[in-house]
Amino acid sequence: MTFVRVKMEMENVKEGEVLEVVLKEDEIKNVMESVKTEGYEVLNVERGDSIFRLLLAR
Amino acid sequence: MKEADYKELKKGGMMRQAEKGKFSVRLRLAGGRLTAEAMGVVKDVADRYGRGEIHLTARQGIEIPFISQDDLFKVKSELAAGGVEVGVCGPTVRTVTACQGSKVCPLGVLDASGLASEVDRLFYGKPVPTKFKVGISGCVNNCLKAEENDIGIKGGIEPCWNRDLCTYCGVCEAVCPADAIRVREEEGRVHIDLGKCIYCGDCIKACPFRAMQESRRGFFVFAGGKFGRFPSLGKKMGGFFTGDSAVISIVRESIEFFKSFGKPKDRFGTTIQRVGFKEYEKYVLDALKEEMGEKAARHHR
Ligand code: SF4
Ligand code: SF4
Ligand code: SF4
């Protein structure tokens, strides 16, 4: 489910823009696998207290 | 009909039913796979000689019940003419079970179905002290329950870490279901405890920067499992093995071990327990080493 939202947000991201996504730890597995399948670029991954903060570009 | 005749028929896959004079005819299948054409032949026989029904067995097999004793051999030859073989029962190597494996399942590591056909082709129906079951799961999700077989095979992926690509983001550590990964940025390393690792490959799929990579694809072996009255799970052999031919060798050597050391009425697990798991492992691995050279030996950890 979470990835569906990420994907919808990514639709609005234009060339040169970056989407920041904050995920709970247990969401990272599915989201990251889908991000890779979808071919988005992962600019950065930061680990916080039980969360991950991703920076994605198209 | 004498008891001995019933026994002979049973060995040949024709099992006496509760109802007098009726038999359930077991077919030879591997990995639950048969062509649609063969299915037509089976349907035809069930319609004409049985009651128009088939039974799907617990181990991916098919039986055609309600066949009259007098029709058994006609049924057998009609099936054969349509390319369908009758199966076995009794103290033999039984139906090899398998999931669809890598040719169909996106998660598959092993071509479980193809391997099942090969094991079936080489060993099906061979006489052993008691029934001997082989089951193959294409990956660690283990849909085909490797541990409940005399020999169970389970595909897996061994991960390895590439320092140059790693950003120490911690995703691999978070996704690992076995708590086998420790990301230690201060030490400049990510440690994978292969003793804990279940070879699922999740860390490889999730790593955002391709720093977690596939080292080897292969399989684990479980020996001595069974169900029935006193179920027990097969025990994992030491080592992660690679190569389809190793599957065949391990099954072959296990059957040889069973034939050499098994007493009548032993299940494979009982024989292993009496002789010792270490001895059994050594028997199989020594043969493997001889066959494949020291490469196989390195797989033993
Ligand atoms: S064991 Fe793995 S490969 Fe086989 S069906 Fe299950 S998920 Fe697919
Ligand atoms: S997920 Fe990949 S990049 Fe991140 S810490 Fe693990 S190996 Fe390194
Ligand atoms: S393969 Fe699976 S169990 Fe092994 S380290 Fe990676 S995520 Fe953990």
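^ iron/sulfur cluster complex. The longest strand of chain B covers residues 212-223. The interface with chain A takes residues 167, 169-171, 174-175, 202, 205-209 of chain B (CB under 8 Å).
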